[in-house]
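Task 17 of the worksheet. Students: predict the tertiary structure of the chain below and write it out as structure tokens. Keep your answer in the requested format; marks are given for formatting as well as content.
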Amino acid sequence: MIMTEGRQPGADAAAFIAAARSDDPTHFEILTERHRRELQLHCYRMLANYEDAQDLTQETFLRAWRKRASFQGRAAVRTWLYRIATNACLDFLEKRNDRTPVPAGLANLDEVLYLQPYPDRMLPEDPQESAVARETIELAFIVAVQHLPPRQRAVFILRDVLGWPAATAAETLELTVGSVTSALQRARVTVRERLPDRRLDWSRPATHELSEDERSTVRRYLEAHQRNDLDGLTSLLRDDLRFVMLPEAGTSVITAKDAVDGWVAGGLFQPGHDDWRGLITTVNLMPAVALYLRTPDESRHRLFAVSVLHVVDGKITELTGFDAAGKSWLGLPATL
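Model answer:
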């Protein structure tokens, strides 16, 4: 279910106004905290970085408290908070010159070095908000959106992902309705170019459940790792595989052979880096494997990386690896 702006303010707004006027930070926090996960997901779509999204969600709550007197109940509390979060993200992006894709030197392929995975356990719990369209959280979508200028990105997310009316998006961004409509048209063209083979209708959510095809492929991927079976691993990769290891620059490749050759050249699957264990998991509503490596001087396998897979017809077409060490927010055990 797409979150639409059209919910009319009622008892929730009245309680919110009362909390704001009472200057009771505890009561105010209770009423805003219920929106944390959906706001954090919104910030993540804007920023592509989980840690930044956490920070900007907290900034949203701080701004909301400072601006509490401005809430008059003419819109839903959720809408008011989304407006604050959107503008907090835009302010953040205006100050950062390292939050744009970097050319990878390959045809039509840029590296989003700040991209981080989103743990599924942190998706919204509210049944009305938890039906997140899978396409709008998958890594390919998040990366495609990063190719939009920040304000155009905000328009696209507010209009096409959250389903807001043009007038509400225009008010949030201090633009005219005409400017919002024009920005949305340009954004759609860019996203279609970046996602040529993906479904582009986000008015209905896709299932959250992994298909049997995905489950089988990810299981075989883990088993091949644990056996150090390079032939078996290669057989799971489509020839035109797209691979990148983040946050390292210059790791993007667009063939399975180049990916495997790069892993071997980097020392993986060689003596000292050939004792693997793993856990099957999901991030960004996508199949993933948490890989653990035990080196000769260690007694336990330590969390090494998370491989996020896009599977089509039993083949891995995209593989995004993330350095997972020290990222407790992933909710993965540090050792096995």
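Marker's comment: DSSP finds 13 helices and seven strands in the chain. Residues 1-9 have pLDDT under 50 and may be disordered.
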